[in-house]
Amino acid sequence: MEPLKIEREESKLRADPSWADICLTCGTCSAGCPVTGVDGMDPRKIIRMAALGMDQEIIDSRFPWICTICGRCEYACPMGVKIMTVMRTARGLRERDKVPGPIHKGVVMCLERGNNLGIPKDDFLFLLADVGKELEEESCPGFYVPVDKEGANFLVTINSKEPFGEPDDMKFWWKIFYAAKENWTTTSENWEGVNWGLFSGDDEAMKTITGRIVEHMDRLSISNLLLPE
Ligand code: SF4
Ligand code: SF4
């Protein structure tokens, strides 16, 4: 009797065609995954689906978005299966208007206005000056927020949720810089430190947003970066 043959479709999500044969279905990935069981999530199941060429089912599912992209599964897999890579690739293959939540909108906003929440430049600069003044009066005499300072020792990016909703949180870093007498700066434009292209699977946007930080560092002759996010 002839052995049964399963016809496997090629998968765009399968980084290595041999996965279908090397995955042991041991479940180590599932055991270590912090979101196994959430709405039926199971990394072992995703790898089996990718091995069978079920790309569209994975792309249309919630699994890649439930995944936190933490990488524990890849680290633990005894066979070196690139599970996290599959998850992120699947995110990137989702139609942009079907990306869940606000992250794609944040990417578009960042590309257009330089930060995920679209905070205008004048408002941002006013806020930096205002909160900086508060800090000076509270505990740091002579403190101010240096913006676009050439030759600073390091550049600091900012998470837009801080100036938008939690401006006092910026003071935590500033107090450290003040106490350490650091020569630092931030920028007046394109200062966003949270690259949502990473999370939405948008490599082009991620490159553009990262490239802006590199441009700042070149333009201002700064060789160190603090990306607090
Ligand atoms: S840990 Fe690796 S080999 Fe084991 S089930 Fe997961 S993907 Fe397959
Ligand atoms: S990268 Fe995703 S699938 Fe892998 S362990 Fe983390 S949450 Fe789970």
List the helices and strands and how they pair.
Blueprint: H1 19-22, H2 28-32, H3 43-51, H4 55-60, H5 63-66, H6 72-76, H7 83-93, H8 103-113, H9 121-138, E1 154-156, H10 161-165, H11 170-179, E2 184-185, H12 196-200, H13 203-219, E3 224-226
Parallel strand pairs: 1-2, 1-3
The protein binds iron/sulfur cluster (2 copies).
| Largest sheet: number of strands, sense, barrel closure | 3 strands, parallel
The N- and C-terminal alpha carbons lie at a distance of: 60 Å
Mean pLDDT: 92
Q: If you compute it from the alpha carbons, what radius of gyration comes out, rounded to the nearest whole angstrom?
A: 23 Å
Question: Low-confidence stretches at least 5 residues in length (pLDDT < 50)?
Answer: none
Question: Would you give an account of this structure?
Answer:
With 229 residues, this protein is mainly alpha-helical. The protein has 2 domains: 19-93, no CATH class; 103-226, no CATH class. 48% of the residues lie in helices and 3% in strands. The chain is built from 13 helices and 3 strands. The protein has helices at residues 19-22, 28-32, 43-51, 55-60, 63-66, 72-76, 83-93, 103-113, 121-138, 161-165, 170-179, 196-200, 203-219, and strands spanning 154-156, 184-185, 224-226. The protein has a 3-stranded parallel beta sheet with strand order 2-1-3, with no helix packed on it. The longest helix is centred in the middle third of the chain and has 18 residues, at 121-138. It is elongated and about 85 Å long. The mean pLDDT is 92. The structure holds iron/sulfur cluster (SF4) (2 copies).
